[in-house]
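User: Continuing from earlier, I have the next pair ready.

Assistant: Great, send them over.

User: Here they are, in order.

Assistant: Folding the first of the pair now:
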Amino acid sequence: MTTVKTKNYQLGILNRPFLLLILMAWAALPSGGQEADRTSTRLPDLWTAAKRGSLEEIHNALASGGKINAQDANGITPLCWAAMSGHKDAVAPLVEAGADVNGRNGDGATPLIAAAFLGRTKVVKTLLEHGARIDVINDEGNGPLAVMEIHWETTAYKARALGIDVDKYQVRLGRKGSAEILREYGAVEERGSLTGLAVLAGVVGGVTWLSYRAKKK
């Protein structure tokens, strides 16, 4: 009996290193563990990278085949995400990578209109320097100057619905600076009547319809 117990005990000891090697090999497999799956889900797509303004993430997303002018589920292009989020330093790399500076969102807005809407003054200037047109309007008939007339409640609702934090004072100040820059580039304001456009988040308001044209230099 003593011999059998000793033999079984020794057999168990000999098996432990073997089992340990199996477990270590399984954990080392690229797709064998849950950690590899969790890591892969952290890689952001191009729209998320642009919204964050991370140049490294933008580069990686482009290298992974991200489509520079494609709209996401919200109908927003990568450049518009960067513009709305106020990431000036992400604008030039995206344009250089092929982003259309006058590309449209699902609502007809261009990056310039999107940036002006949230008072992203530095982005507005950068877009204009890269050839953004000022004589554009979205599907509601509003251009870069007109969208800055939209009242705060609607502005805050639309921004927060997209996960963008906004501050009333900063937006107001940014819109003022953006308007000055737009006029320096030749934007002309022609006020029309209140149109009663846009019912957003239960807020009904008249939106001043402004049309714009560029002065020939």
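And the other member of the pair:
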Amino acid sequence: MRSGWVHAALGAASALIGLGHLPARAGVRETRTLAGVESVDRKGDADNDTRTFTLTGGYTLGAVHIIGEWTNPNGVATKPGHCYARVRRPDGAFVDVRLAYTSAFVANGTTLINADFRMSGADPAGQWQLEFYESVDDAPGLADMVWNSLRFEFEDTSGGTNGGDITLCEVYGLEQRAREFDVAGLSLGTTSWNIGSRAMAWRSAPDVRHPFIAMNIYRLRDGRFTQIGQSWVKHGFFALSDAQCGGFCNATSGEFLGVGCTDTYTPSVNANQSGLGPRFEVNPWTGAWDFNGSILQTGIPGGDTPTSRLIRVRDADLDPALNDGAEYFYEAFYIARDDANPLNSAAWKPFGVLGQTAGVWAFDQPARSTAPLPGFAIQGASPTAQVTTLAQFFPVSRGFAPDGRCFLSSEAIDNKDGTWRYEYALMNVDMARQVGAFDIPAAFGIAISDIGFSAPEHDREFLNQPVAGGGGPIDNDPWGAERTAEGVRWKTGANPLRWGTVYSFWFTANAPPTSGTVTLQLFTPGAITEVQGAAQAPAPKARCTGDTNSDSTVDFDDIVAVLQNWRTIGPFGDATQDGDVDFDDISAVLVNWLQPCP
């Protein structure tokens, strides 16, 4: 594990979550930012910092979201959870908002905060007033906390509600729960947060109206990003009406996750095997699931083993002695049928492997209170990789696109010997039709070697899933690879790239990188059969006249190439590059016989 990884993670969190970089949520109409705000004494004290700002309005206000960064400036131990703001609307209505939820006393430090509250039902136009205060004065006469920056986002609900919206404010506590030979069964904790404008269904099975939680583990080593473990999906069953992420929680009875509310499933809850089902039963784009015939109804064939359904990781993928310099990441991803914005329902954190004692792995990981990185690990694990979104339709949003998306990470690593290693990690985020083939362009004449493939093992979940169009069960067989006239292709007939999963591909080429167009073939039938996007790919080599096979030499092999491709359109054998292999190409080879190529 590289040194300073915690600082790197926090730096990335600041970049992704911080005020200057986080885009406003869907439905946000106006934003206002305050800087250098102090919290000094109890409510109403003359020393407290008061601020005002004016909104233009012209819409019906929904929720107000606050995101900011606070600092303890004086070194005196205080409790961030004592920090509040009284927010008063132009019409006089007000609400007291708790700005931080850290329960421990801290002497110094800087932390990101999130808060969410509702002041709906009115046009927000006019002057807003804010008083920042302490519920308990922990440091009399001193500023307990200073908010370096606070951004207020005002949601517009004039056109109707935006619906429920799940995000994750906590991903934490990776731990080993079981062992089976050389496989460790792991789990982690998740805290979901409804930042939308409508409560979300959280009913237990057999009711289909609940979310699903997928958990993944990845490794980045020597530029290669691979998935080394994945769980089945946890079926949500009850929503705790907490406010662990800040703001006001509109509590419910547990069958719904209220607006502004959070719900935590601990590592032990997420490891309860009876509440975990196979991913293939869930449509990742619509959130649809049927209890009838599901594993939750029928039970797992042959019964559970100690690690079944958990995040299964082989010891060899974690052992520090076998993975020098490796970096690791864990990730959680929520899917729900009533999630109006499925694009913000995942988060991840880096972690390290400390070692194994008596068969149990120990991990070095950020504290639970450390904000996770929003999105998917593939989007930020490698700072030098190019990441592209591939989908059938853009924008990828519910109500418009019929299916979800994939992320493709691509990178070319210079071997310093005239060759480059091309690394690709392809994640099917929530594309229900799955991926069955992957094509990278590489022009004829480029030498390709060391073609490789890696995929996580699907733990028995494939047993009941038929191949599209009939046939036997989906399996774990690796994809086949071939060098084609157009490039490199990997394909499968029975092991498609399923949702929430990363497959990795690589090869070595004697050509430097350029931007190329890659192609994904969709696995299940449909009107659209492929999607394309940009990625790093080998640059075509310049051909000289007569060099029909692009080996930089005009010789007998080029005569053979012309004859083998006689009366075709090329590119093989087309020495003149005119789209027709004929006598002109024989002449071009002979005229340039043994001439040097650039």
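Worth noting for the second one:
The chain is about 5% helix and 40% strand. The mean pLDDT is 84.
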